[in-house]
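yo

u said u wanted the structure for the complex thing, so here. seqs first:
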Amino acid sequence: MSTQPFHDIKTERQDITKPLPRILILVPVMFCISCVAAITLNLLFFFKIKESETTKIEWQEIIEEETLRKSETEKLIELIKDEDRRAKDVYDWVEGSRQLQPLAVGVARSMGVKSSIEELSLVRDVENPHQIRIGLDFVNGGQKQLDSTLSAINELGYRAYSANQTSGQGGQVDYQATLIWQKISNNNNLSLNNNE
Amino acid sequence: MKLSNITNVLSFAAFRPDPDDSSCMWRKRFRNKQTLLLNFSKEVVSWRSVSKEGVLGEENSIAGSVKEVVQDMSEDWLDLTDGGWCAVSINHRFVISLETNLTRKNGASELIRTNPKAVLGSKSERGKRYALKHNDESNSSILLAVDEDYIKEIETLFKSSGLKIGRICCGIYGMLSESLDQISEAQKDYNENVSEPLGDVILITCCEGSVCILKSDQEKWIELRSRNSLYTQKDMEPLRKIIAPILESLGSNTQIVLSADGTVEGISQMLSELAPNVRINDMSDSYGLWNLLKNK
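structre next:
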């Protein structure tokens, strides 16, 4: 059978258009593929967004829990720090508030035979209990007696600062200073304890 | 650009031919669609449906004028089609003639439909529709002329019944044209393989009571006789009377090629009686009208 179309004698329609070239079928094909891809990607993104929103909510809950835990932990740390600070204060106070009796005894014993104490004052600073204001008024012995007394004080672990010394008539010496407890070696502590 | 143009591209419709685009074959125009094929003669209308798979349905026929049958059967025919599309073959009010020295310019076959005067010159008549078949080996051509009024009458009749016409053709002319193509191909093969001349060929085409007889000498067409509404299945005598004179003086190397519709058995028998010593090549089954209408 020949490939020529059959003859036609009908009244020809004027607006008949020839079919488009087959190669152009790529246009609607690509359009269909694009539509399918767009729908698929939109669905994919939709589910991913839903998933991420769920994950975001879960993470926000976790963050809230962790923030709560953090604040509780911080409160606990503050309490511990406060406790520690108070403990340190107690420790400092204990460390600073050493008994005045050994100091008074040490000063008295350091006095020579000819020297005599006219007035001895030991005042503990309320704010800084490890600082003691000493006021020593003695007669006879002079500077030698004062060095001997200060040496005895040093042996007890105190150091004198802001010393003020005045010498009056008749061998009277007025000595005022601030004594600060110095941490000494264990041996000294032991000896101090022994003394105590 | 219209919105319909865009939708046509996106729905792939723009890549398919229009249903009434006569430059495309019927099977390409109506792929996966039901259509109806109709064959009209003066007193009988026959039809066959074509399924979506391209299979021909059973042949039916009703005696009566075209107008009456179309009005009665249009509802049934609409059920046999997708969209009411049908191809109409007419075997009435036509003339097939043998012409010589017609122009063979490119596009002449298309031009004859719109401007027959440009192709036929003084042979063109007003109120006629033409189709043309050239002989590639000589200057002769076969010319079909159909009354334009008859075509317009059919078009109006179908339109008013809700049917759409995708093609109007002359069945017997189509069968003749296809047979000539087949003979031409066979002659080429024969000439390549055999040195002796093929001899005369008498092509007898019959369709719905119309007959067309073409006598050719070698590859030249020398005589053509055509009659419409000449015979019926019951009365074949008029056909015998027109064929007999042609078959009287046949040479020894003459062969008859027969292409006919449902009445083929009677015609073949008649030819055997008229020319018992002549070889008859019957190509009716392969290239019958319905197959041509369906496939081309």
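Chain B has three domains: 3-91+149-170, 94-146, 172-295. The mean pLDDT of chain B is 87.
cya
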